[in-house]
Amino acid sequence: MKTKNDYIDSMAAELKAWGMQIDVLTAQAERSVGTAKLKYTQELNSLRGHQQAATLKMRDLETASDDTWENIKETADKVWDDLRTGLSSATANFK
Predict the structure, then answer these.
(1) What is the dihedral of CA 62, 64, 65, 68, to 10 degrees?
(2) DSSP-based three-state secondary structure for 64
(3) Which residues of 6-35 are buried (b: 16+ CB within 10 A; e: fewer)?
């Protein structure tokens, strides 16, 4: 089982990598035109919402006491899964 700090470090690394992937998708969307650009922009807005929720949840984890971080971890895992799924879907749609 990961410690609180190991968990936070792992999540921070994933969040950073996903941020770079979102930047790549943003660049692709900017090169698109018409309805494709609109669709990509909407999908990116949703991804950014998930990214923001993940960032906020990570802050909650960082400030949680050693006694309560496990409870916050459960909701953090759900937020991470939502972002992971959204990014995977967006990446497939952008191809």
Answers:
(1) -130
(2) coil
(3) ebbeebeeebeebeeebeebeebbeeeeee
Place of tokens 């909650």: 60
pTM of the model: 0.85
Q: pLDDT 10s per residue in the chain (95 long)?
A: 678 889 899 999 999 999 999 999 999 989 988 888 888 999 999 999 999 999 999 999 899 888 888 888 889 899 999 999 999 998 898 87
Q: Which residues contact 13 (CB under 8 A, 6 or more apart)?
A: none
Enclosing domain of residue 21: 4-94
Question: Which residue type, as a one-letter code, is found at position 77?
Answer: D
Nearest alpha carbon to residue 60 among 38, 36, 79: 79
Quote the number of domains for the chain.
1
